[in-house]
Amino acid sequence: MRRAKEELLWGELLAAYDRAPQSVLLENEVELVIDQPCLVIGGKNGSGKSRVLRKIAADLGPSALYIDLHHLCEQAMIVLRSRDDIDEMTEEFDPDGPDATRRDDLRRIIGRRYQEVQWFSLEIEPNDPSAAERFKWSGTQPLVPYFRTTYRDRAYTSLDMGLGEYSVHMLFWILEQYREPGLTLLLDEPDAYLPPVGVEGLLNRLIGLCLQRRWTMVVASHSEELIASAVEQEAFVLLQTDKQGHTQVQTAASDSAVADHLLTRASVDRIVFCEDESAWYLARAMLHSYSPSMGRRTAVVWGNGEGYLGDIVRHLPKPPLPEIYFAVAPDGDQRARFGAKGKWPVQFLPTTDDPDDLFMSLDGDRGLLAERLGADPADLGRFLDTLESEDAHDWVNLLGERYGRPHTLACLAQLWVEKNGDAARDFANELLTKWGI
Predict the structure, then answer these.
(1) What is the C-alpha separation between 161 and 101, in angstroms, rounded?
(2) Residues sharing a CB contact under 8 Å with residue 390, sequence separation 6 or more, in sequence order
(3) Could you give the angle at which helices 421-435 and 277-290 cross, rounded to 10 degrees?
(4) What is the C-alpha separation between 53 and 57, in angstroms, rounded?
(5) Helical H runs in 61-195?
(6) What was the pLDDT predicted at 332?
(7) What is the pTM of this model?
(8) What span, in angstroms and rounded, lies between the C-alpha atoms of 235 and 427?
(9) Phi, psi angle pair for 37, to nearest 5°
(10) Other CB atoms within 10 Å distance of the CB of residue 85
(11) Which of these, 203, 227, 263, 313, has the minimum number of CB atoms within 10 Å of its CB?
(12) Cα 340 to chain center, whole Å?
């Protein structure tokens, strides 16, 4: 399965999703709505991710498959290490997998082209009664998996594997024990021991399996790669604990920045130059609105007017395979005058006005503007009345002096983008097209 195809899987899963939303009541009557075929739950340690998964499992009953992979791996290894007859036992059984599809899953996630992989399901009962019950899976007899592999002419087994490799084999072996459609798969940090490149492959492969078997999935994770992907799809849920110790729920669907404090700054590989501070706030607001990932990966730089932008376009070299992409974004009122040509793209800010004119147009919705600024509506109204004779540049500056310049510019930019969503999306789309990304 090629990477490009894998990246489309989430969209295919969304298109195939036809279940009614399920609601789970958490402590303190907090409602968690499961309205996505793949939902990712994140939060700091102690926020209740595992507890929430167990609550979902209890509410859904037989239609839920809860896998706390770390615990299951630990219990399986305890059993295997307690025996000295494992190799003899495998002589009595034929391997029960993996098939070609699961072998490809292992290769993509673990990153190893195995020469041979054999899975055995051994009829061994763990000494711990509760563990024995868990290891019955969908049958009546406890089964403990045992794996044999050959890689680069070296043969080794479960007992020789690192935690990351072993946990991937264990997870997909478990999933092969269940085939009935309609399950809700609940995974507690299945990616904990994997490198970032493995996490991406794991998520895509699990989504493909859910699509094939008509399952839904809820995953608890600390993985930045997985969380960032879920935010992009508005399928992320943040858990937090309030001062009373109660779990609180926030979603990426209602706030695209909900996971920002869990993510380190993405590596910047795109730089956009604009004219001034107002243009900087507007460009950033449009990029973040289009895609939080694009906003994190793009640095916006502002200078003193449009003069320096022409020099950048004329003189900034463009290699055949750039590691960093550049663009200049003059104000919209520069369309007729900005004639500089160069190798890097020019993408004008929306409309034929400059950003201060766009911000000043928000005077027409004073109630919403007061709400965003955190200002008293009557006080703001009286102040704006005194600014009627000012030009747009001074209007913005004076408003910033009264309510705090960074706060005011951020509010004005975000509000304009919300009211002009098509123009903001067009700006980002056209920029990506000119970059060829």
Answers:
(1) 21
(2) 398
(3) 90
(4) 6
(5) 69-81, 86-90, 100-110, 129-134, 163-175
(6) 94
(7) 0.70
(8) 25
(9) -70, -20
(10) 8
(11) 263
(12) 38
Quote the tokens at residue 240.
Answer: 């937090």
pLDDT for position 340: 57
What SS3 class is residue 355? helix
pLDDT of amino acid 266 = 67
Instruction: State the amino acid at position 125 in one-letter form.
Output: E
392-403 and 377-385 are packed helices; what angle lies between their axes, rounded to 10 degrees?
Answer: 140
Secondary structure element (H or E) that encloses residue 190, with its range: none
Cα gap 429→321, rounded to integer Å: 21
In the structure encoding, which two tokens stand for residue 398, read together? 């004076």
DSSP code for 346: B
Residue closest to 413 by CA, chosen among 400, 398, 431:
400
Q: Report helix, strand and coil shares of the chain as percent, to nearest 5.
A: 50, 15, 35
Q: How many CA atoms lie within 13 Å of 85's alpha carbon, on the beta-carbon side? A: 5
User: What does the block give as tokens for 350?
Assistant: 């929306």
Kindly state the tokens that stand for 126.
């763990």
DSSP label of 414: H
CATH 3.40.50.300 domain residues, the chain: 3-262
Q: What are 121's two structure tokens?
A: 């399901």
The DSSP call for residue 317 is -
The pair of structure tokens assigned to 97 is: 């997998």
CA distance 246 to 430: 45
Answer whether 216's CB lies under 8 Å from 37's CB: yes
CB-CB neighbours of 16 under 10 Å:
11
Q: What is the pLDDT of residue 6?
A: 53
Determine the Cα–Cα distance for residues 247 and 239; give it in Å rounded to an integer: 6
Which residues of the chain fall below pLDDT 50? 1-4
Q: Is residue 262 within 8 Å of 224, Cβ to Cβ?
A: yes
Write the CATH number of the domain with boundaries 3-262: 3.40.50.300
pLDDT score for 69 = 94
